[in-house]
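Work through what follows:
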Amino acid sequence: AEYMGKDGVSSTMSHVMFLVGKDNSSCPISWSTSKIKRVVRSTIAADALSLQEGLEQAIYIRSLILEMVSDIGSMVELPIVAFIDNRSVVQAIQSTRMVDDKRLRIDISAIKQIIEKGEIQSITWCPGSMQMADCLTKKGASNIELLSCITTGKLHTG
């Protein structure tokens, strides 16, 4: 996500989703960039809202895929693993201490609820240089990792 874009007011969120095989072969299946529909007060709030939207989209897409393979669906595992380059979001999700911003508390609680229900496998911090969706929202952000993944068909995890 990008907090307070060029106009100094609106923030932008994005996500890229990949279907990844056991050998790290990958294929992008969804991507999105959009303005955040409410005013956020911090980078952590923008990133948490973007993560929440991305997780909900991933859960929906997984349900569609499982429905398509319903005859073998019970044998198919499609774990959802999320990567985010904001350590504060990961720490807020893992902590029992509440964040100060009341609206952010709701977003963090919604993410915690998704985790508690077992709908996702994990949320992991990654360095900003490895965050593939940044090039969709931030001017000057590198697109090398995203293009490499798309052209090679391999998700680089290290």
